[in-house]
Amino acid sequence: xxxxxxxxxxxxxxxxxxxxxxxxxxxxxxxxxxxxxxFAEVIASTIGAGGxxxxxxxxxxxxxxxxxxxxxxxSVTGNTLDLAINxxxxxxxxxxxxxxxxxxxxxxxxxSGIFKLDQDGYVVNNNGEKLYGINYDLSxxxxxxxxxxxxxxxxxxxxxxxxxxxxxxxxxxxxxNTPTPTTPLTTYGTSITAYDTQGIAQDVKVYMRxxxxxxxxxxAPLVNNWEVFTDPTSAATATTSNVxxxxxxxxxxxxxxxxxxxxxxxxxxxxxxQASFTNSTQFASxxxxxxxxxxxxxxxxxxxxxxxxxxxxTARYSNGKSMDACQIQLASFRNNQGLQPVGGGNWVATNSSxxxxxxxxxxxxxxxxxxxxxxxxxxxxxxxxxxxMTAQRAYQANVQTIKTQDQALSALTSLR
Length: 416
Hints:
Blueprint (H helix, E strand, L loop, with lengths): L1 H24 L9 E9 L13 E11 L6 E3 L6 E4 L4 E4 L13 E3 L5 E2 L5 E2 L5 E7 L5 E5 L15 E9 L17 E8 L5 E15 L6 E8 L2 H4 L8 E5 L11 E7 L2 E8 L4 E3 L4 E7 L7 E6 L4 E6 L4 E7 L1 E3 L7 E4 L2 E3 L8 E3 L8 E4 L1 E3 L5 H33 L3
Helix pairs in contact: 1-3
C-alpha cells in the first residue's frame, strides 16, 4: 500500500510541475491566464466503520486544475488593432473556415487582442479567426457578424449646404462713405472653402462694411447695421447688392445671426449655402475671425482607423471625414473558471461556464477596450519559480517514501 501512496504523490507532484511549467512557458503570451493544480486526499473507507477508526490516507489526487482570470497588466504597443480588455469580458471569435449555419457565429473566446486586417478587410487574429461584432452600413443599418472594414472604398464628396462664421467687427469703424481724417473707410473680409456636388472646391469670400445706424436717440434702442457681400466690387462701392444685413445692439450682440443665402459658383453651376453668424460680436477691438466651418467635403480615400473604449471602429479618410464602420462586442460568462481552454489562447463555453452573454464594451459588467495595447499574461514568474522549487521538493520526498518502503521490504524478505 505504501508504494501506491508514494506513487500517487509522484503523479500529483509531476502534474503540479506540468501546470507550473505551462504557466512559465506562457509568461509572455498576451492574454494568457495562469492555472494551479488543486489536490485532494485519498482515503480508503471501510463499509460500516464508524468514526475515523484510525484510518490512514492512501495518497493524493489532483482534483482540479483551476484557472485564475485576474487582470493582467496592459502594455502599450502603438498598433491600432492591438486590443486590450480592461475589466471583465472576452473577445468573441468565429472559428477559421467555419461553415454552415454557424459560419457567422462565435464559438471561441479569447483575452488575446492581437488582431489585423486580412485581404478581405476582416479583423482576424493570427489563427485566422474573425472578430465578431456589429457592422454598420451607409444607411445606418446594423448587422451582426464578422467585423469587416472596407479599405477600398472612398468617402464620397458632399455639397456644402451650411456655412458657419463667428467673428468680431470693430465697433470703432465708421459708417461707409463718412470717413474722418483719422478713421478711414474700412471693409472687413474673410473666406472659406466650399464644395459643389462633385467635390470641386471654391473659395467663398465674405466682405462686411458698416452702414447707417438705426434707432435712437436714447431711450430708443440703437442698432448698428453691417452689410454683407460676396463680391469685392460691390463691397467697395455704394451698391446695395448685399446678401445680408447684420444688426448689432448697443451691447455689441448680434440680433439676427441668420441663416442667410450665400451663393458660390464652380464650373458645374451656381450653388447656394445657408450661412449663419451665430455668436459674432461688435466690440471695440480689431476685426478677427474666431470660427469658420462648413459641411461639405471633397472625395476622400481611406487612411486608417480609430477605436474607442466602447469598441466603435471609425474609418478615417483623407478629406478629414470619418465614419463609424463597426463596433466590437464582448462576451461575459457567469462562471469564467468553467470555460474550457482549447489552445491558441482560446476558450469554449461549457455547461459549467454557462452561455455567453454579449454586450457593448463598458456597459453592464463588461470592461472597456484599449486600442494600441495588449493585456499581458497574469503569470508572476517569481511566484512560479518558488512554486516549482516546492513542487520539486514534494517530488523528491515522495521518491524517498518509495525508496524507504523498498528498503523495508527488502529487509523483511531477507529474514531467515
